């Protein structure tokens, strides 16, 4: 009886371990970005790591990198709209843009020097807004 209980316990333990192995998280695909025109978010790959495109209007001092790579000026008053036009309708068709929803809400752009620059710039703006250096620095 003891052997049967021990064997059952071992089998249940191994099954539990094997089950957790099969439930490993899916690897993040960072080969593209998703643009959401309803929430104005810019998400990296299939991850939930997103930036708010509206924050571009607060980052005038960071525009240089985007303007240089796209060869265009980010102008107001609608900086977010101007950035969206750059992302979704690149002047020289530097990369393909794919509409991924029937209603036109979601678009997919490949990760490249253009779209990565937008991601890095939004990240820098976000960092400057929400993690400013302390006054002692």
* Order of neighbouring strands in the sheet with most strands: 3-2-1-5-4
Run of helices and strands:
HEEEHHEEH
The percent range for strand residues is 5-15%
Give the oligomer, counting copies of the same chain as homo and different chains as hetero: single chain
Rg measurement, Å: 23 Å
Fraction of residues in H or I helices = 40-55%
Number of strands: 5
Tell me what you see in this structure.
With 137 residues, the chain is an alpha+beta fold. The protein is 42% helix and 14% strand. It has 4 helices and 5 strands. It has helices at 2-22, 63-70, 79-88, 113-130; strands at 32-36, 41-44, 50-52, 98-99, 106-110. A 5-stranded antiparallel β-sheet has the order 3-2-1-5-4, covered by helices on one side. β1 (32-36) and β2 (41-44) form a beta hairpin. α2 (63-70) packs antiparallel against α4. The model has no long low-confidence stretch (mean pLDDT 84).
Topology summary:
Blueprint: H1 2-22, E1 32-36, E2 41-44, E3 50-52, H2 63-70, H3 79-88, E4 98-99, E5 106-110, H4 113-130
Helix pairs in contact: 2-4
What are the salient characteristics of this protein?
4 helices; alpha+beta; 5-stranded antiparallel sheet; 5 strands; elongated; 137 residues
Brief sketch in words of this structure:
The chain has four helices and five strands.
